[in-house]
Amino acid sequence: MNVGVAHSEVNPNTRVMNSRGMWLTYALGVGMLHIVLLSIPFFSVPVAWTLTNVIHNLGMYVFLHAVKGTPFETPDQGKARLLTHWEQLDYGVQFTSSRKFFTISPIILTGGIIPVVAQQLHRENIEQVVQEALHASGVSVAELAAVATTVKPGLALSLGVGLQYSLSLVNRHQKPFIPIHHMEAHALTVRLTHHLEFPFLVLLISGGHCLLAVAQGVSDFLLLGQSMDIAPGDMLDKVARRLSLRKHPECQSMAGGKAIEHLAQTGNQELLTFRLPLQQYRNCNFSFSGLQNLVNNAIVQKEKEEGIQEGEILSCVKDIAAAVQHAVTVHIIQKTYRAMLFCIKNSILPSKNATLVVSGGVASNQYIRKGLQNLADTNDFALLCPPPRLCTDNGVMIAWNGIERLRAGLGVLHSTAGMRYEPRAPLGIDISKRVEEESIKVPKLKKIRWMAS
Fold it and tell me: Helices 115-137 and 96-110 meet at what angle, rounded to 10?
């Protein structure tokens, strides 16, 4: 790979970027660091892993400040070959393919989001995004009825950028301010695309969240259950990464969850069966980390059987994808089934013509959606889902939540004194313990599995 040969000028870091020895040395160094941390008696395994990741992320942060040009050849480098990655993010030198790459480079380099980089990208783009939205709508700031902004929950540094900008706009133009709960916005998006009255059951499934709640009003929610660890989208992405699906010829350009869904279409889910989590608890809480561990163990076993190393593609990868997707679907259906029965039993929802709303990025998985449709049909529920573009995080849902609150006169502030963002914030009133205390039985797994198939 030649780095930065556009305009016939060689990038000053070509030799560095092409140096296998440098990257091998870095990888070995991180590995040795982790071993040293594990050997310290008073460091637990989670602490050692956390410190290793923090130090690795700091290394990648330095990388962004040190390496100039682009890590692949593009026709639009121009002066960018003389600027570091961070300078390009700061000053917006790159456009088109290179610009897009640098927007996601921290995620590619570290396998996750670096909060300080996310904060920088927010700062860099927020003004332009707002101006483009105003221009596209043909509305000036003076004509706005109010300003709605996400203040909870989420990454603290990113929330801070949005809140600071919004408060500046509000104070400058003397507009009402409407603070928005991110998950409330997801739950109410469906009312933008469908005529739907309260109350209704909401299942939010994404890469960062998994919860069941009853929407009784614009700001009136009952939380029935939520994930106790990771979210389903996060788990599917991690499984895809462990299976090295980016190396699979059919999945090279796909996100992890999408790759699992694609391969599962031609896989045999019956060849592998995973024990479902939380079977001993009659509640509506979810757990996906234990399921992920079972899947990882199965992958290791299959690699031994086929005599291949981690990073190589298993011959049974499609069957594993199908089995994983099926297990996630069954787990979600089982908990949602109990939520339906609980709500009907306690007259929280009408016994006939109730509605289940499913939103979040994972809601776009057609296999999971089909299973939930079967569940809804079985219990005489209507199933509603926002269009895919509104299922993932987006600004439209925040604006709509603001409209809902403005119409209802809820949470519309004319003074922003003391306004703060909240990285962690529950949705509504938590009645999950009450759900568990009622110990509601759901049909046996055989029927649940049939719904998911």
Answer: 140
Output the pLDDT for position 113: 60
The residue among 98, 69, 63 whose CA lies nearest residue 81 is 69
For strands 147-152 and 177-181, give the pairing. parallel
Contact criterion met (CB below 8 Å) for 114 and 57:
yes
Q: Which residues on neighbouring strands pair with residue 149, listed in sequence order? A: 179
**Residue 410 above 80 pLDDT?**
yes
Residue 122: both structure tokens together: 């927010």
pLDDT band, very low/low/confident/very high, at 287 (cuts 50, 70, 90): very high
Reported pTM:
0.73
Pick from 181, 185, 215, 112: nearest CA to 423: 181
3-class secondary structure for the chain? CCCCCHHHCCCCCHHHHCCHHHHHHHHHHHHHHHHHHHHCCCCCHHHHHHHHHHHHHHHHHHHHHHCECCCCCCCCCHHHHHCEHHHHHHHCCCCHHHHHHHHHHHHHHHCCCCHHHHHHHHHHHHHHHHHHHHHHHCCCHHHCCCEEEEEECCCHHHHHHHHHHHHHHHHHHCCCEEEEEHHHHHHHCHHHHCCCCCCEEEEEECCCCEEEEEEEECCEEEEEEEECCCCHHHHHHHHHHHCCHHHCCCCCCCCHHHHHHHHHCCCCHHHCCCCCCCCCCCCCCECCHHHHHHHHHHHHHHHHHHCCCCCCCCCCHHHHHHHHHHHHHHHHHHHHHHHHHHHHHCCCCCCCCEEEEEECHHHHCHHHHHHHHHHHHHCCEEEECCCHHHHCCCHHHHHHHHHHHHHHCCCCECCCCCCCCCCCCCCCEECHHHHHHHCCCCCCHHHHHHHHC
- What value does the mean pLDDT take over residues 352-375? 93
User: How many C-beta neighbours within 10 Å does residue 362 have?
Assistant: 28
The residue among 318, 326, 325 whose CA lies nearest residue 249 is 318
CB atoms within 10 A of CB 150: 23
Q: Are 281 and 209 in contact (CB under 8 A)?
A: no
